[in-house]
Amino acid sequence: MHHPIVKISNLDKYFGRLHVLKNVSLEVPEKQVVCLIGRSGSGKSTLLRCINFLEEPSHGTIEVDTVKVDADAKGKERRQLIHDVRLKTGMVFQEFNLFPHMTVLENVIEGPVTVKGMDKDQAIALAEQNLDSVGLLFKKDEYPMRLSGGQKQRVAIARALTMEPRVMLFDEPTSALDPELIGEVLNVMKKVALEGMTMLVVTHEMGFAREVADRVIVMAEGELIEDATPEELFAKPKDSRTKALIDRYRTGE
Distance (Å, rounded) from C-alpha 30 to C-alpha 12? Predict the structure, then answer.
């Protein structure tokens, strides 16, 4: 039996009375790259943040690599399950969230050493390998303020990878970057995808979705309105809202 890496069942999320996710169900098999697209406020980022409980789901279940958490459950056991889910998910945000008082290398080994209790030498070896992979090993002793936004985001990706996650979650990872720096981050993400990482990516970058995604999911008003391969989706969108979305990106490109 091949388990999906991520399985979301009947997920609801309310902010007060605002119903931002409406009975969302989704399965992501191993090594699949899924891009989530949709207008601002459609629920994409909220969905992503519910997977590792940065947002508390109101109802439903989240399962990551066979660790299953029920939104309605309570107590200590649930907290442990959420901790286990977070260990299995790497997250990359719009903002880079690097510790300014630590070098690049210190930033990357912090999680594995403090959260996972990894041996420091082992963490350093893994961190250097991942920094090399994102093209920044030569910056390992620099402080974040000396890096460009694109470099900071690449360090953030290396940091997430050093936790050895089962799935990587990217929440609009290029939206805070200057246009000329976006490509270097997308290239690193493409490389991570090619190395077989399971990925969920909230993005506005249609070129990336078209080229790298195995599957593109369109969200509108808290629901998944379309789910197809990039080829199908861009050639023949079924929903008029998808068509409007794609047309808007085409004119913007």
Answer: 24
Q: Is the pLDDT of residue 1 over 80?
A: no
Q: List helix spans (H) across 13-75.
A: 44-51
CA distance 37 to 224: 10
Alpha carbons 188 and 186: distance in angstroms, whole number: 5
Is 69 in a helix, a strand, or coil? Answer: strand
Task: State the Cα–Cα distance between residues 40 and 51, nearest whole angstrom.
Answer: 19
Contact 193, 212 (CB under 8 A): yes
Distances, alpha carbon 189 to alpha carbons 56, 59, 136, 186, 233, in Å: 27, 31, 14, 5, 21
Strand 89-92 relative to strand 167-171, pairing? parallel
CB distance 167 to 28 below 8 Å: yes
Q: What are 183-227's pLDDT values in tens digits? A: 999 999 999 999 999 999 999 999 999 999 999 999 999 999 999
Handedness of CA 123, 127, 128, 133 (dihedral sign): positive
Torsion, CA 138, CA 139, CA 141, CA 142, rounded to 10: 150
CA angle 165, 226, 203 (to 5 degrees): 45
